[in-house]
Structures are given as structure tokens and as C-alpha cells.
Amino acid sequence: MTSTAPALRYGTPAARWTIVATVLGSGIAFLDSTVVNVALPAIERDLDAGMSGLQWTIDSYLVALGALLLLGGSLGDLFGRRLVFVAGLVAFGVASAACALAPSVGALVAARAAQGAAAAMLVPGSLAILSASFHPDDRGRAIGAWSGLSGVTTALGPFVGGWMVDAATWRLVFLVNLPLIAIAVAIALAHVPETRDTTVARHVDVPGALTASVALAGVTYAVIEGPARSWTDPAVAGALVVGLAAAVAFIAVERRVAQPMLPLEMFASRRFTGANVTTLFVYFALGGAMFFVVLQLQNVLGYSALEAGASLFPVTLLLLALSARAGALAQRIGPRLPMTAGPLVAAAGLALMSGIEPGDSYAGGVLPGVGVFGLGLALTVAPLTSAVFAAVETRHAGVGSAVNNAVARVAGLLAVALLPLTSGVAGTDADAFAGAFPRALMTSSALCALGGLVAWLSIRGSGVDQRMPPPAVDHPCERAPAKVGA
Q1: What gap in Å lies between CA 371 and CA 362, rounded to an integer?
Q2: 124: Cβ contacts below 8 Å, ≥ 6 apart
Q3: 360-369 per-residue burial string, b: 16 or more CB within 10 A, e: under 16
């Protein structure tokens, strides 16, 4: 069946299946970014891995993901978002099996890099499918549901991983992906509509892809390794210089090629640019908070790893309960107000958490800040994501998602790399951490509030001019008719 416009309506069977498939796909990628952390001690023992090997077990995934996000989003727009999404799922399954069977830490690091490359097709693809397939009136609710459910998969990672490592082996952490991927592929092929940009030929911008990948890989590597190895280390400095030079080359290439991977006119939209700047500030604050609060709870207040992870679970519950409602609210009144109020509320939560100190009970000293922070995130995430898609033409949904995801990933990396330096952390022992923790949280709070101010100044109007030809939409199942006069 072919339709000339996105037409899935929220609440119909086809819409529910599409949300399930995209949540499973992106959730697997998010889960693997957190579940591996708890398996590191077991991996170290089994594979005789040193600290460098353990670091790159995590970092190889992040570097590959960051480097290829733009390419993954662009391929989906050109060749079909469902096609690239399913290909990413299959590739992620193969890489997961290679991780589970890795005989050495070197093989594991290589397989983890392959996982990151596959995830670069899954994460922007999942959101691009929702944006291109759902009727504009229901897009905010669909993205809200995706945000809440995907947040749950991320938060469950440490709990699921810990249980698997204790009950069986760290290799099960990777093998569990295989049945989930099989289910996601089956649902996607049966129920998810295929969409792509029909206005251009299926031509890959090879120079753009190469320069973008080198730029993101170089900057990501430098951000990860700079604090640990010194910013003056030849490898770090060289990676940063190459990455920045490739970024300049990428802009030059995209200005000249006939079919650019990243149409630079997207950034002429104040709404799109503002939403991504807001993403940078909010996700920097989020990354810093998650890093510092967990360490404060364990190193200063004496929480176990499981207790520290569980202490932040209210954030996940609030995202699950309120994200769809926040998306629906933004659909009705526009994203400007929730995108302004949300970061301000989250900033208040971070300020409250900055007062966590030895002797505090969970209910009196930790939960209030965590709860307020979670409420602020629940108000922010779905409207923010919706605003990004509302600011780009539907045919560029994949690239728009990839840009926003790349900004969020870089923001998290910057937070972990820079906040310890700016807050004066000299170590992870209790004495060194106690003085730096409030400064780090208050810095995060200020940046989060700044994100709200950026949203207030830049997010106006209700959408973009969608006069460009919409994508063709082929769906194998039923499709609810669009509202008359929508």
C-alpha cells in the first residue's frame, strides 16, 4: 500500500507495532551502552585485560557510534529507513555474537567497535521511522512513548547485566541481544512502513561521509582520552587536530556537492539550531549528574553499586509515566513552554542534589533532588526530540535525528571529560570528591538552566514549511485514515 504522507495514527495496531519495533531496536543499542559496565571486572579476570583494555571495551563502541551517526541517518533517508534499521539490527546481532565468543580483549574491542557502527544505523533510524511514519498530529505522542520506553531499557542495563554476570557469565550480556534482535526484525518487516527521501537519487555523499566520520571519530577520541592521557599527548592532540580539520573540510564539501549528506540549510532554521543547542546543554548536565551522583553515593555515602543504581530509578519511572503526556502537551501548545520549563525544573533538581552529603538518608537527602530532576527530564525529552523533527522536512528525518543524537552523545562525553577538571576532582576517594561534588552539580545545574533559556529564545512557531514533496510510504498492514481537515 502506498500513501503520499505520513499517516500512522497513535493507538492503532500498526502504530503500536511500529513503536514496539523502534523501541526494541534503539533499546538494544542503549542497553548495550550501559549493561557492559557491570561486566568489566569479570571480563578483566577472564580475558586478562588491563585497564586500557577495559577502557577501550567501552570507548571503542562510543567512538564508532559517534563517528558514524550522520552516515547512518543519511543512508536511511536515501535507501529506506526500515531497510537501514533492519540492516543495523542484523549487523548488531552478528557483532554481539562476536563479542560473546571473543577469545581475547583485542577481539572484544574490535567486536564492540562493530556494535557501535551498527548502533549508528539503529538509533537515528528508530526516531526517523517514527517522524516519517506518524501523522503530524500524533508524532509528539509517539516520540514521547519512545522516549519513556527507551529510557527504561537504559536504566535496566546495570540490573540485568549484574544478574547475568552473577548467575552465569559475562558472555550472556551479549548473547541476550540475539533473541531480542530476532523479534525486532520480525516486527519491523511485518509492520513498519518503509519511508525514504524520494526527491533525490540514491547517491551516497562519499566525501561528506568520510570527512564527517573522521571529524567525529577524531574529536570523540580526543574527548575520551584527553583527561586520562593529557591533552598534550601526541595521539590526543593529533586526533583533535585531524578531527577539527576534517570538520572544516566537511563543511566545505557539503557546500559544494549536489546531494550533501547533511544539508547545511537545516541550520538556517533557528528552531533546529536552538533545539540542538538546548540538547547540548541539557545532555551535558544529564551526563555530568549521572557520573557524579553515582560516585558520590558510592564513595562518600557508602552505597553499593546496586543501591546507587537503584537510587536513580525514580528518574526512569517519571520518564516512563510522563514522556508520552509531555509529548502530547507539546503537540497541543507547542514545544516552547515545556522545553523552557523542563530544563529549569531539572536544574532545580540538580541544585538540590548538590547538597547530598554524608549522613543524609535516601528519603530526605537524595530522593527530593532525584525526583525533581526526573520531572524536569520528563517535561523536556519528548518535546525536545519533537522540536528537532518539526524543524526539518520529513525527507531529512534521518539526518535530523542523527545530528541530534550526535550532539547528545558528544555532550555526555564532554561532561565526563571536562567536569572533573573544572570542579577540581583530584581522585575518587571520599575526601577528594566531597569538595568537588557540589561544584560539579551546580555547574551542571547552571548549564541545564541555560538550555531552558536557549529554548525560550529560539523555539517559536509550530513547525516548518513542509511544501517539499513528502516521502513515499509503503505499509504492508492496515493504516488508519487521517483526520478530515488535519
Answers
A1: 12
A2: 69, 72, 73, 76, 398, 399, 401, 402, 405
A3: eeeeebbeeb
Separation between Cα atoms, residue 277 and residue 286, nearest integer Å: 14
172-177 contacts at long range (C-beta below 8 A, 24 or more positions apart): 172/100, 173/35, 173/36, 173/39, 174/32, 174/96, 174/97, 174/99, 174/100, 175/96, 175/97, 175/100, 177/28, 177/32, 177/92, 177/93, 177/96
Q: Which amino acid, 386?
A: S
Contact 279, 404 (CB under 8 A): yes
Q: Scanning the structure block, which residue is given the C-alpha cell 553499586?
A: 305
| DSSP reduced 3-state for 2 | strand
Mean pLDDT by 10 residues, the chain (486 residues): 58 88 85 72 82 75 80 82 93 96 93 92 82 80 76 67 77 90 94 77 76 84 78 90 93 84 81 91 86 79 75 83 84 89 96 90 92 92 82 72 79 77 65 80 94 90 41 34 31
Phi-psi region of 302 (alpha: psi -120 to 50; beta: other; left: phi over 0): left
Cβ(346)–Cβ(322) below 8 Å = no
**Beta strand ranges found along 92-232 (DSSP E):** 194-195
Residue 447, CA distances (Å) to 125, 348, 350, 442 in order = 29, 11, 10, 9
Q: What DSSP character marks residue 3? A: E
Q: What is the pTM of this model?
A: 0.73
Cα-to-chain-centroid distance, residue 239: 23
Cα-based angle 114, 144, 22 (whole degrees, multiple of 5) = 35
Beta strands in 111-236 (DSSP E): 194-195
DSSP letter assigned to residue 300: I
- Do the strands 473-474 and 194-195 form a parallel or antiparallel pair, or are they unpaired? antiparallel
User: Which residues fall within 8 angstroms of residue 133, CB to CB, at 6 or more apart?
Assistant: 6, 7, 8, 18, 192, 193, 195, 473
- Cell matching residue 304: 553499593
Could you identify the residue written with the cell 531499557? 153
Residues 6+ apart with CB under 8 A from 211: 246, 247, 249, 250, 253
DSSP 394: G
The grid cell for 412 is 555526555
CA distance 393 to 197: 10
Q: Tally the residues of the chain.
A: 486
d(CA 379, CA 471): 30
Q: Provide the 8-state DSSP code for 481.
A: P
User: Residues 197, 81: contact at Cβ < 8 Å?
Assistant: no
What type of residue sits at position 88? G
User: Do strands 473-474 and 2-3 pair parallel, antiparallel, or not at all (unpaired)?
Assistant: antiparallel
The H-or-E segment that residue 351 falls in is helix 336-353
